[in-house]
């Protein structure tokens, strides 16, 4: 029981000790250099799938400018991770709170060097709400768990990418992770921390959640603004009043008792990452780091606009069968306030 409590209070740590298939765990590091011409997602992880050659560890990379991807496979024995803190090793690659050390030189997207993380801002963790999932994090055997490890932070260091040196000093970063049996049947995800107002971050996701012989669209949205995290989630009692997905954009309107949040994410060309199913890591995940997201955050009392801005270089995924998200109503499960 103590191990379970410690695990839930440390979303950054490894949750897979003693787990049997199906199981996956992956950490997502987004890095953007100060010129904003170099954008990458780097994803270390482990898959205990029974297909796709069986259990293995990996480092996956998305070039957010060109859409090129890399999936570098390693044996399970090349993977290790701490259960209490962020410290993941996959072969010669290491990922910690301090940053990442990469050696992917023997690959079709050669990358080598070190990136340092400066002043990460984790989603708050408390006993009653251990991270972005709120009290849902305490529920055992959910299909997929989610954590946000840093909403926004500065970067330093350099990477040699295909023999070109890229200086990330003064750039911005973001870190999250997922673990469990598989990705949901359908989901929409957006994230950006490149607003005109530095230190601002939006992370937003909605997915079909299996729940006692049925499914429902669970959502979690966080707007980090002026040092305050505003939460709109299924577990806070917030509601989705409008959600639409077209070839050009995702339009999403949420509200709770105090605030209204309008999000318009403009889609962009994607690269093909690999995501977890219950048997392998071969599920196509279309992702971009070139979307833009318009945000209007207002008080419902009088509709006073608290913040309006456009986030650039946004991560965006629209995956699986997302149609049920557009027709289902959120479950009426509530806890706490939105702030």
* Estimated structural class: mainly beta
Look at the structure and give the CATH class. Mainly Beta
Number of strands: 22
Provide the CATH superfamily: AttH-like domain
Describe the protein in words.
The protein is mainly beta. Strand 15 and strand 16 form a beta hairpin. Strands 1, 2, 3, 4, 5, 6, 7, 8, 9, 10, 11 and 12 form a twelve-stranded antiparallel sheet that branches. It has helices at residues 2-8, 323-327, and strands spanning 24-32, 39-47, 56-63, 69-74, 79-81, 87-90, 93-96, 99-103, 111-118, 144-161, 164-167, 172-180, 186-192, 201-211, 214-225, 228-233, 239-245, 249-255, 259-266, 271-275, 283-299, 305-320. It has one domain: AttH-like domain (AttH-like fold), CATH 2.40.370. Helices cover 4% and strands 54% of the residues.
């Amino acid at each position: 029981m103590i191990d379970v409590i410690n695990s839930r209070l440390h979303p950054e740590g490894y949750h897979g000790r003693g787990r049997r298939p199906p199981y996956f765990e992956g950490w997502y590091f987004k890095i953007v250099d100060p010129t904003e011409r170099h954008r990458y997602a780097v994803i270390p992880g482990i898959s205990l799938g029974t297909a796709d050659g069986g259990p293995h560890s990996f480092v996956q990379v998305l070039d957010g400018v060109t859409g090129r991807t890399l999936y570098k496979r390693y044996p399970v024995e090349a993977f290790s991770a701490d259960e209490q803190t962020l410290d993941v090793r996959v072969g010669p690659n290491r990922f910690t709170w301090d940053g990442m050390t990469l050696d992917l030189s023997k690959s079709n997207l050669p990358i080598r060097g070190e990136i340092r993380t400066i002043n990460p801002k984790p989603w708050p963790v408390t006993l009653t709400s251990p991270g972005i999932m709120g009290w849902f994090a305490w529920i055992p055997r959910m299909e997929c768990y989610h954590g946000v490890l840093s909403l926004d932070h500065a970067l330093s260091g350099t990477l040699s990418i295909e023999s070109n040196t890229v200086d990330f000093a003064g750039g911005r970063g973001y870190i999250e992770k997922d673990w469990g049996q598989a990705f949901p049947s359908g989901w929409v995800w957006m994230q950006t921390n490149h607003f005109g107002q530095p230190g601002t971050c939006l992370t937003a996701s909605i997915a079909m959640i299996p729940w006692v012989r049925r499914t429902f669209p669970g959502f979690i949205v966080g707007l980090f603004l002026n040092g305050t995290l505003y939460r709109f989630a299924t577990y806070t009692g917030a509601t989705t009043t409008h959600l639409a997905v077209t070839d050009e954009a995702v339009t999403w309107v949420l509200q709770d008792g105090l605030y209204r949040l309008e999000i318009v994410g403009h889609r962009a060309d994607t690269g093909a990452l690999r995501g977890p199913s219950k048997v392998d890591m071969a599920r196509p995940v279309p992702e971009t780091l070139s979307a833009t997201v318009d945000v209007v955050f207002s008080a419902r009392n009088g509709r006073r606009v608290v913040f309006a801005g456009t986030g650039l270089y946004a991560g965006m995924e629209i995956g699986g069968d997302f149609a049920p998200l557009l027709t289902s109503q959120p479950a009426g499960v509530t806890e706490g306030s939105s702030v």
